[in-house]
Amino acid sequence: MYRPSGTGVAPKMGVNSRVFIFEVEGMRQGENTDKLNFPIRRSGAVYITVPYERMNQEMRRISQMGGKIVSIRPAGEPQTASTVAPVNGQQSQPSEEKTKPMTHAKAKTDIPVNIYRPNNPYMGKCIENYELVGEGGLGTVRHLTFDISGGDLRYLEGQSIGIIPPGKDNKGKPHKLRLYSIASTRHGDKVDDKTVSLCVRQLEYKHPETGETVYGVCSTYLCNLEVGADVAITGPVGKEMLLPDDEEATVVMMATGTGIAPFRAFLWRMFKEQHEDYKFRGLAWLFFGIPYTANILYKEELEQLQREFPDNFRLTYAISREQQNPQGGRMYIQDRIKENADELWQLVQKENTHTYICGLKGMEGGIDEGMSVAAGKFDVNWSDYQKQLKKAERWHVETY
Fold first, then answer.
1. Average pLDDT of the segment spanning 121-129
2. Catalytic residues
3. 3-61, pLDDT tens digit by residue?
4. 199 with 257: CB under 8 angstroms?
5. Strand pairing partners for 185?
6. Quick one: pLDDT at residue 13?
7. What is the three-class DSSP state of 284?
8. Do 286 and 271 contact (CB within 8 A), yes or no?
9. What secondary structure does DSSP assign to 236-283, as a single string?
10. What was the pLDDT predicted at 121?
């Protein structure tokens, strides 16, 4: 992530290459100066050079470190009354005066896109790679975390990043990037704005002609990536799956397999992290389809959230090879949707309900079937109503 230029790292220049000077008071300097009565917290100021596109993140960092932004001015201009912009439109006050926590812009006001492109990817470093599938489960799924502290990569919940595997294809050309949904919040699993995490299943299938087992190039590369190895990252991309700003919203999530990735990020932001500018008080309902109990990704963490927030988080599994639907067949996620269709229909009619679908493309038809039956009870055509939801940006789909 971005480091202030005072550390010797030059700010990234690009389309938004304007640079500003933040005057900051009260920044924590270390263990001793973290004490509220330490003199440096009541006196002195530091000046931080910040590129325009990094302003929101740097504001968050300063706030987390106990600092107060006194003024902001364009770099290269002298500090005068006419060029200094007091924060919140007020004149600066002595740093020892008690102030309210800074309120930051909502996430959607600044959606980062393609900060890094394939011709100039960010080189991150793998710091974590562990198995998510339990004993007796099907396939292999890995949770990977990459260190991105040395660059400008930032992202929001619901976005994706590209991974460029090393080597060349059978035509002698470099491998193309593959997109993966981000499984961590914008602050990363360490909550320090320095990492990004993925949830990756190793692609494995039989060649239709030879019957030979074929493994996906990028997924195999990632699943076998060693801690400490470099990885080429592009992005972020995506605006379809962003979490709504409304802290009272109803968020319905339907996932199969690694489609859980963006919803893990949602739930961690809603319930695990603590924010001054975002405190979720609505309802989150996750429908999760998997073949076996051993394939429930992030099972312990999800069930812990359900225990801690029973009034705000509901968790519904569809375990296809262990449970049966009412007809005696395998229990798929669309069967759970049909079971709860009447309640879901009532929820989707609320203006602050957002529905997200992520995972295998085949799940969409069953979901539509269940919702059609529920809507039909009120003489509503589900297909037409769904179009209205999409137009209102309240029905979000990312399937493959």
1. 96
2. 180-181, 358, 398, 400
3. 333 333 333 444 344 666 777 776 554 444 344 433 333 335 667 777 766 766 677 67
4. no
5. none
6. 40
7. strand
8. no
9. EE-STTPPPS-TT-EEEEEEEGGGGHHHHHHHIIIIIS--SS----SE
10. 96
**Helices 363-376 & 341-348, crossing angle to 10 degrees?**
80
Domain annotation for the chain: domains and CATH numbers? 5-92 (no CATH), 122-237 (2.40.30.10), 250-399 (3.40.50.80)
- Integer Cα distance of 95 and 111 in angstroms: 32
Burial of 314 (0-12, 13-18, 19+ CB in 10 A): middle
Average pLDDT, stretch 251-260? 95
d(CA 316, CA 382): 23
The predicted pLDDT at position 45 comes to 66
Whether residue 236 is preceded by a cis peptide bond, meaning omega within 30 degrees of 0, is yes
Q: What is the pLDDT of residue 65?
A: 66
**Using CA atoms, how far apart are residues 363 and 331, in angstroms rounded to an integer?**
12
Query: What 8-state DSSP symbol labels residue 302?
Result: H
Indicate whether 95 pLDDT > 50. Answer: no
DSSP string, 335-397: HHHHHTHHHHHHHHTSTTEEEEEEE-TTHHHHHHHHHHHHHHTTT--HHHHHHHHHHTT-EEE
Instruction: Report the side by side order of strands in the sheet with 122-131.
Output: 178-181, 160-164, 230-237, 122-131, 141-147, 195-201
pLDDT digits (tens, 9 = 90+) for 71-91: 777 766 555 444 444 444 343
